[in-house]
Amino acid sequence: MIEKVSENKKYVKFLTYGCQMNFSDAERMEGELAKIGYEPTESMEQADLIMINTCCVRETAEDKVYGKIGEIKGLKRKNPDLLLGITGCMAQKEGEKLIKRAPHIDFVLGTNKIHEVVSTVQKLEAASVKHVVDTEIRESEMPEDVAIHRKTALSAWIPIMYGCNNFCTYCIVPYVRGRERSRLPEDIVKEVQEAAAQGFKEITLLGQNVNSYGKDHGKASFAELLAMVDKVEGIERIRYMTSHPKDLSDEVIEVIKNSRHICKHFHLPVQYGSNRILKAMNRVYTVEGYRELVRKIRAAVPEASLTTDLIVGFPGETEEDFQQLMEFLAEIRYDQAYTFIYSKRSGTPAAEMENQVDDRCKHERLNRLMELQNSISLEINQQLTGKTVEVMVEGPSQTDDTVWTGRTDTNKIVLWKHSGSEKPGDLVQVKIHTAQTWLLKGELA
Ligand code: SAH
Ligand code: SF4
Ligand code: F3S
Fold this sequence. Notes:
It contains 13 helices and 19 strands. Mean pLDDT is 95; it is low at 1-6. It is α/β, with parallel strands linked by helices. It has three domains: 10-134, Methylthiotransferase, N-terminal domain (Rossmann fold, 3-Layer(aba) Sandwich), CATH 3.40.50; 155-382, pyruvate-formate lyase- activating enzyme; 388-444, CATH 2.40.50.140. The structure holds S-adenosyl-L-homocysteine, iron/sulfur cluster (SF4) and FE3-S4 cluster. Residues 57-58, 170-171, 173, 208-209, 242, 244, 269, 271, 309, 311, 340, 342-343, 345 line the site of S-adenosyl-L-homocysteine. Residues 10-126 form the MTTase N-terminal domain. InterPro entries: Elp3/MiaA/NifB-like_rSAM, Methylthiotransferase, Methylthiotransferase_CS, Methylthiotransferase_N, Methylthiotransferase_N_sf, MiaB_methiolase, rSAM, rSAM_horseshoe. Its main location: cytoplasm.
């Protein structure tokens, strides 16, 4: 009998979709799997374990996952020992249904199961069970004391809280991530210090609504946490997301204004520009309240950039609402907007609302919105031509390795010709000569 040649090495391939929180979770699951000998690979063919860390914020995100699950069926035929695990938000939402639809899936773990990944894989390796499905959210448990395999080179993701309490009527996140729970400030500061010791120059603090950080345990507010993190030596830039306008306090603006390292960039998703739709979305603030917040930010930190998320085609959106949104954009003048077409998520209140907007109309409005926003973004960027900006070096651009890329503290992407000496993490001065909608080009000053 010919024995199967074993390299004695096991490989895991991660496919991660969705937001930074999901990428951060994947880094922790990968760190945990390393404890039982799994090394990361980029190759699906080489993998002994494939983990699809899913998102379900829009239908398109779910379609991508079903496509991938289908592809893996062929790989499992060639390699019957290959394990396939589905984790993340769609796993939380669909649970058992995923395995009914695709029986070649070995396990489904929900969003709060980072601690359970190792024991689940071990059970399946030992073939003591056929499938594992675990989507219970125990909100008292947080993934502390887990190993982390950071995948990013420059910026470290640091989760500060999990879950969401807001229940915006279009959004699935609170149903799949559970209620808000904040990590302890000392655990967060320790993780930031460790990232600095590993050479990270930038960190991004993560939460669905970072402004409500600490309201559950009362040990520190978001403003206090920012001030603590700002003191960590070695970290040059601090970013955070996402900031809900209803909870952005004056203290937070003040801390950012006086900080050493917190980036002068406010990502403040407004979602819509008419009070009627904001109310139907359960965003809690009004157009007037938001406008006042922007005024305060710009008065305190005039050089700050401002970006947003927008949804078009929310149920009941009329041409009049849409006109108000367009006027609001022209008034606020965001540096950048991430625009989404409303996607019906079953189980959310908006999915049951009447007057769903038809697809053609949604696309047509999205195009008009993007056209307006692109022209504003370009005009704002053009004001930077001839100016010198400070850029944190990231590395070679995707298309040409002599052209390097990095970001300003206001989060604008800058490209320049590499001199041969600047390294990732360095801060360099770049004089801008060309402005485009999504990036700036220049030369070292
Ligand atoms: N917690 C963050 C957002 C997380 S989801 C916040 O409150 O800002 C990221 C973005 O996806 C949201 O800002 C919203 O613009 C968009 N989004 C959420 N649900 C959506 C849906 N059902 N259809 C389309 N876009 C959606
Ligand atoms: Fe979704 Fe609203 Fe929570 Fe953001 S704040 S995750 S949009 S429910
Ligand atoms: Fe998607 Fe879950 Fe993030 S639904 S956007 S991966 S919190």
